[in-house]
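Colleagues,

For the teaching module next term, I've prepared a clean inverse folding example: a structure given as tokens, and then the sequence designed for it. I'd like students to try predicting residues themselves before seeing the answer, so please don't circulate the second half yet.
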């Protein structure tokens, strides 16, 4: 492969990896997510060795308050509500962005990001809570994975004949 083809190949791979879509918070009730505080910086703890005793977990639910009638949301331990969908209302926000209602009832838009150090898709609230949407398995490069299929690329091994 000459240098021109190699350059084009590298550009296509980088463009493909950079343009992949984030996985979204699932839009159905009963799906649970881990929520870390700022004192729990590691997003993907070792399952064999509990690193934090109290990682809060919150699940999507139909909200019962009058102001959120017919809305599906995710409530954090700081009483913030991430609005996922409301019946009869169409969202015009960018994929991976959500309306969040803070403790003081102020609304803002928060968008998901990829934490490349941990290999996790996260949403960070104004009160500095980090909601872990998905993490890739350990042992793979966190900067190269397909977010849509949630699978790392296949490993290719060269064999010497």
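(Answer key — instructors only)
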């Amino acid at each position: 492969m000459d240098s021109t083809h190699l350059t084009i190949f590298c550009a296509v791979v980088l463009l493909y990896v950079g343009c992949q879509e984030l996985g979204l918070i699932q839009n159905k009730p009963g799906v649970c997510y881990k929520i870390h505080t700022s004192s729990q910086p590691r997003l993907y703890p070792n399952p064999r060795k509990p690193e934090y005793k109290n990682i809060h977990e919150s699940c999507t639910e139909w909200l019962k308050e009058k102001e959120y009638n017919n809305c599906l949301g995710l409530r954090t331990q700081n009483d913030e509500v991430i609005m996922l969908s409301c019946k009869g209302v169409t969202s015009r926000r960018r994929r991976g962005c959500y309306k969040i209602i803070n403790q003081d009832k102020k609304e803002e838009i928060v968008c998901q990001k990829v934490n490349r150090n941990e290999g996790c898709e996260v949403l960070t609230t104004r009160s500095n809570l980090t909601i872990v949407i998905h993490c890739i398995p350990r042992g793979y490069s966190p900067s190269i994975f397909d977010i849509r299929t949630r699978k790392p690329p296949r490993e290719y091994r060269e064999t010497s004949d």
